[in-house]
Amino acid sequence: VNMPMYIFGLIAGIIFIAGAMFKIQHWPVANIMITLSGIVTVFVFIPILVIQAIKDKENQVQNFTILIFVLSFVAIIFMMYALKVSKNVLTSFAISASDHMKTSEMVEFRNASYLEHAAMLVQEGQLEQAKAISDRTNALDDYLQVVMGEIILKTHKMNYDAVDDKGNIDLKKVSYSDVVGSTEMVIFGDEGISGKGEELKNRIDEHREFLKANADPELAANIEELLDTSPRGEYETPWLVYCFRQTPMMGAVNILSNMQANLRFAEGEVLRQMIQPDSWLQKNPD
Questions:
Q1: Which pTM was predicted?
Q2: Residue 139 backbone dihedrals phi, psi, to 5 degrees
Q3: Residue 189: beta bridge partners?
Q4: DSSP per residue over 21-53, as a string?
Q5: Which of 3, 62, 116, 171 has the highest CB neighbour number within 10 Å of its CB?
Q6: CB 22 within 8 A of CB 29
Q7: What DSSP element (H or E) covers 194?
Q8: Which H helix or E strand runs over 190?
Q9: Phi then psi for 163, rounded to 5 degrees?
């Protein structure tokens, strides 16, 4: 019995199984473990196996079968590196996120025009309320932008050029879009570092109720759907877990940019309703 061959084969197998589990779960150091198992197999186990096969003339078929199995195992190791989110899915996420960002910019410009019109059409108290809606929306939009930028920056150092000093994001410069760890680190925290998820949800909830309080019942119902953070799915999974657990970086950017677009649209509808002459006369008949 060639004991070293069995020992190194067992070590390589254990490391590979652990690495495969880490890879499937998108946990850190998965690639390191799979690489280590491949190194042990190729540079230690296979040479020992070949030497054993040369020396053992009586069991040529058995040794050849084992060698085929080991080479198949090495092929599986290389296949594990391809276990990523589909490139087409990531591309669709990126396109969708880019569209959301452009929509947010356009709606933000439109909302600024609504605010200018409000200065001419509504009373002073109502104008102050319109400005409060705009200011609070801007603050939440900025926070969503900060969360997105942090997720992108924590994904890989190559993404430093994708986020400028003002927090503006250039998705064309973003790399490693399939990484999951950065999303979970920013949203849920890691090793004593608190995540931003709970604050994000609380701020969305507070702003949703604030907008609804300034809207008619029909618009308030639409705002409830646009900025909904209630549990999702058959098992009532919490919104943060449902949206961000095991979510690749570009998927998280897509979700957050969509929330930005919804936020700006809701803001605009509330402001538009406030400056409509009919709406203003109903609230101020005198």
A1: 0.71
A2: -65, -45
A3: 194
A4: HHHHTT-TTHHHHHHHHHHHIIIIIHHHHHHHH
A5: 171
A6: yes
A7: strand 193-194
A8: strand 189-190
A9: -125, 120
Backbone angles phi, psi at 195, to 5 degrees: -85, 170
Can you tell me whether residue 193 is helix, strand or coil? strand
93's tokens: 């996420």
Residues whose CB is less than 8 angstroms from the CB of residue 135 and which lie 6 or more positions away in sequence, other chains included: none
Q: How many angstroms separate the CA atoms of 258 and 238, rounded?
A: 18
* Buried-state track 261-274, b at ≥16 Cβ within 10 A, e below 16: bbbbbbbbbbbbbb
Residues 100, 254: Cα–Cα separation, whole Å = 8
Q: 235: which 2 tokens? A: 């098992």
Residues 180, 186, 191: CA angle, nearest 5 degrees: 95
Rounded Cα–Cα distance for residues 84 and 10 (Å): 27
What the block records as the tokens of 149 is 């930028």
How high is the mean pLDDT in each 10-residue block of the chain (286 residues)?
Answer: 80 85 69 82 82 74 76 72 65 91 93 82 76 94 95 92 91 88 90 88 96 92 94 89 90 96 94 68 47
Q: Per residue in 178-205, pLDDT tens?
A: 888 899 899 998 877 889 999 999 999 9
